[in-house]
Design goal:
Shape: globular
Structural class: alpha+beta
Number of strands: 6
């Protein structure tokens, strides 16, 4: 993680940056009960765009309203934080560009192993 990355968001301790997109960064987080989650932290400049927080809240409500195989639960979110964030179950997997750009058929179809291990800061 970079020096300016947050180390804690809500009740979640963050240890690794998993990726980023046009609206924020996603971190690997750990809940107080030990659950591992993915925590998306919205970029500060986007948080103040008119209407963004309302759209963010709708996205969280919609995510929580559905469940089933292949859907990732969203146990927590805070649209009113200085920088909005949401936590979802962490699903280990390869970086999306690898299977999408690989010419190796096995890399494109073999699921990622569940034995991912991260070293957590003390």
């Amino acid at each position: 993680m970079a020096d300016d990355d947050p180390r804690r968001v809500g009740e979640y301790r963050l240890s690794h940056r998993l990726g980023k997109d046009g609206t924020g960064c996603v971190y690997l987080g750990r809940a107080p009960d030990g659950r591992i989650v993915a925590v998306k932290v919205v970029y500060a400049e986007i948080a103040d765009v008119p209407g963004f927080r309302e759209r963010f809240a709708r996205e969280v409500r919609a995510s929580r309203a559905v469940s089933g195989p292949g859907l990732v639960p969203v146990p927590a979110a805070d649209r009113d934080a200085r920088v909005p964030w949401l936590a979802s179950a962490y699903v280990p997997g390869p970086s999306l560009p690898r299977p999408c750009t690989s010419t190796d058929r096995e890399a494109a179809v073999t699921p990622y192993q569940d034995d991912v291990r991260f070293r957590w800061p003390d």
